[in-house]
Amino acid sequence: MWTVSPLWTSKAELCWAKRALHYGNVAELVGKGQRKILLNFVDVNYIDSSGLGNLVSSLVRVRMYDGELKLLNLTKRVHDVMQVTKLNTVFQIMDDEAVAVKSLRQSAGKTG
Q1: I need a surface site. Which of 31, 41, 62, 69 has the fewest CB within 10 A?
Q2: Which of the 8 DSSP states describes residue 9?
């Protein structure tokens, strides 16, 4: 199973105030059997350390169930933060939604 999760699609920030909402959404998706999750960061212009920690926690949660969590459409500023923190080596970052969805579908076919 896979899902495109359009979290934070309009001038949003991923910071401590949004952390619980995001983690709850990912946990809920995993709880419902979703194992392939694509988080769309279009228009997300800011991410703080709590937001980064939340992303890592979400990734750990998804991987506990042999799933995948990919990031889509990072803005330059968020991409720069991911590079500085080296999280770009932990997360698969995609720029093309069609390619990202296709890769999730292909991996879903291999695992289930």
Answers
A1: 31
A2: -
The yes-or-no verdict on residue 3 having pLDDT over 70 is no
Q: How many CA atoms lie within 13 A of 7 on its CB side?
A: 23
Burial zone of 58 (CB within 10 Å; 0-12 exposed, 13-18 middle, 19+ buried) = buried
Residue ranges of alpha helices (H) inside the chain are 16-31, 49-64, 76-84, 97-111
Residue pair 56/19 in contact (Cβ under 8 Å)? The answer is: no
pLDDT at 48 over 60: yes
What gap in Å lies between CA 80 and CA 102, rounded to an integer? 26
Residue 10 is predicted with a pLDDT of 32
Structural domains of the chain, ranges and CATH numbers in brackets: 2-100 (3.30.750.24)
